[in-house]
Amino acid sequence: xxxxxxxxxxxxxCDKHTxxxxxxxxxxxARALSIGTRSNIRKHKKGYGGKAKHTxxxxxxxxxxxxxxxxxxCSRKVYLIxxxxxxxxxxVAVSR
Length: 96
Known about the structure:
Distance between the termini: 20 Å
Number of strands: 6
Low-confidence stretches: none
Number of helices: 1
Helix content: 10-25%
Order of helices and strands: EEEHEEE
Largest sheet: 4 strands, antiparallel
Shape: elongated
Structural class: mainly beta
């Protein structure tokens, strides 16, 4: 799906619809000391515990695309998530 890289969406700081620049959202690096990472190491990766059984889960093949929209007036950033699952998205320049 082709998504325009500039959209007119609502800005909560300006309290009106303004032009926003879109860029693809990238997740940050996982924290090494978070409780989930620690429990995973304790359960699966430490010592001579043998092979731990993972529950077989089938991952979904596509995700809902997430973007960060930056207001061109006040430069506030908001998330823009398209509520449909799709394999490929592409930011396209808008000709106006």
